[in-house]
Amino acid sequence: MFMPPTATRALLLDLNNFARFPTLPVGIIAASLRRSGIEVQVLSPLAVGMNGIPRPGRARPWGYWSERLAWWSATTANSAVRKARRRIRRFSAEGGAGAGTSSLIASFELALKESPDVVLISSYLMYHDLVGELVESARLAGCPVLLGGPAFHEHETRAAWLKSPGVSAIYAGECDTNVSEMVLELAAGKGMTPRAGLTVAGGADGGIAPPLHDLEASPFPDYADFPWDSYPNRIVSMLTARGCGWGRCTFCSDVVTINGRGFRSRSSSHVLEELRHHYDQHQVRLFCFSDLKLNSDLTVWRALHTSMREVVPGAKWTCAIHVGSRPDEGLSLQDLKAARAAGLVRITTGLESGSPDLLDSMKKGTRPERVREFLSNAKEAGITTRLTLFTGYPGEDASHLAETASFLEDCQNLVDRVHLSRLSIRMATPLLASLKKEDPADHGFSVAYIDPVSDEIAHTNNATQARSYRKGIARLLRVTHRINRRPLADFAAELEGAM
Ligand code: B12
Ligand code: SF4
Prior knowledge:
This protein has helices at residues 24-35, 63-75, 79-93, 98-112, 128-140, 155-161, 179-188, 268-282, 298-311, 333-341, 356-362, 368-381, 398-411, 430-437, 467-484, 490-493; strands spanning 9-15, 39-43, 118-123, 145-148, 169-171, 198-200, 235-238, 241-242, 264-265, 286-289, 316-321, 344-352, 384-391, 417-422, 445-451, 456-461. The chain is of the alpha/beta class. The chain folds into two domains: 9-53 and 96-200, Rossmann fold (3-Layer(aba) Sandwich); 232-493, tm_1862 like domain (pyruvate-formate lyase- activating enzyme), CATH 3.80.30.20. α2 (63-75) packs antiparallel against α15 (467-484). The chain is globular and about 65 Å long. The site of iron/sulfur cluster (SF4) has 12 residues, from loops.
């Protein structure tokens, strides 16, 4: 392995800022740089007073009314209300902004005084304006900046972000095994070797790097630099694979991101070794599997059931699964009992809608009755469940909402949390591509604008204005609130809000 003669120093800024556990990609980058002998300072916004975005837990008593207000303000025909709402949301998305942001900028400037050779920023797109301020400070300090993150997969996004004069280059790819080379080249100041995924300021667009196939070449994430005392408990995020074994849902933006393209899995032994590593390093027993669908690779899924508690005594964990249509989805009562015995206490799954017709047009690959059976098995196995649903898919009307509400009312004693949202349309999804081709007059649904800087796509949906539709929403919000008002079982409470 190439070792630099004198250690290169990198300042790594984590703008994925989450309030519950250390950030996985930032841990990977830190480990990868250290493996090459590069010194790394990780700057976590949470450590310097910038709030992470909270995940909802138990609903407040007034939750039903605040959800109705949120729904109304998002869908009203009054464009001034919608505009005001967008402004408020953008402000709060930037992490509570205000004081938190200025203390982050101050800490960043302080870190620049230590003269790092390179700044690396891992960012979600909502932090564009903040990144603009940070890179300007780096530019004034004469320090090159390499930018990356999960959502730089579109040419327009990269072009817009490269307009900030302090950004030296954007890498649109999984950088697990090549980040050190890029850092050393930037530090040497002799220009960067062209590579797939790399766009240098002023140069031609480098596209997206192909997906990383040898996941075991990636180091275990190094979580030593995170503000462990700022988290309510000690949780580590794990990934056994990248992408989703189903991967076809039309609206899904996860499978078009940098790391979500194509399904790739690690071996069970490599995953178990990593679990043991984090247990030894940080004494963690709580794990959040960030896989899009942990039951994609049934060998790894079942290895967790048999070996999780052998490698981490007393482990508790949470994950997301997809109730698909394979004959064996690994979700039988026997499987779920084995998973519970191995410490699985919470499962999230996306049903999206209770209407079989809508599920077909979304290519969701699931059926409401199969999800019901899964919920019932999970309940019997003693695992708490969380269901995600959304309204507003093109073609949805009051009758579809009624199917979803009936499903939830039937299952309300089987499910512990419901996350009910409105459709978000994202760039690069099959849904957006099909909407661009269609005539909005056909179904009263149209895309109002696309902002490639933030990947915010506004749309109008005439169906939501019908009285019967609004009544359907109220019914759905009522049953959702009833479910979310209940406290979560004590054995699963440590992982509430982790996913
Ligand atoms: C797990 C997950 C979560 C978890 C954990 C989040 C965390 N911060 O750890 C939870 C469920 C809590 C969560 C919450 C949210 N999430 Co989330 N989440 C994901 C998910 C499914 C996987 C992320 C992950 O771990 N990826 C694995 C790593 C290995 O991949 P990666 O992040 O892409 O990093 C690689 C490359 O991008 C590159 N890279 C990354 N950074 C850098 C930096 C440099 C310098 C370089 C060279 C390369 C590089 O190399 C990395 C290693 O391979 C992604 C979907 C997806 N497929 O990415 C969404 C995603 C990241 N989330 C997203 C969002 C919007 C959110 C929320 C804001 C949602 C909300 N409104 O509440 C919150 C914000 C919470 C927060 N501040 O962190 C968006 C971000 C979109 C955007 N426009 O930027 C994504 C992409 C989902 C989507 N498709 O819209 N999330
Ligand atoms: S199952 Fe989930 S992660 Fe997979 S494509 Fe569908 S929505 Fe995306």
